[in-house]
Design goal:
The protein is an alpha+beta fold and about 100 residues long. The chain is built from 1 helix and 4 strands. The longest helix is centred in the last third of the chain and has 12 residues.
Amino acid sequence: MTEKPGPSSFDLTSVEWTASKYSGAGAEKPDPSSFDLSSVEWTVSKYSGGGGNCVRVAVKDGYVLIGDSQNPDRLPHVFTPAEAKAWLLGAKDTDFDFLLDL
């Protein structure tokens, strides 16, 4: 398994971000390290092919956690249910289909 570069290795100053039209205002969220992840039940997409090529998703204490299935020791990203819903609706509505061409 090839280790992916960590987030600090990317220069994000010139990135063009795409937001879903379903997005709203951001909310205060807990630090990912505050969660006890030992009992979290992760779900991965059936499209991952079992090779670790997928993100993993879980719900803990009312927040949506999205983690890297290839690097399970990295802390997950934390989203409110409204943020996760906005992204999922946007994905279903083709807002992020440009990712399919990568």
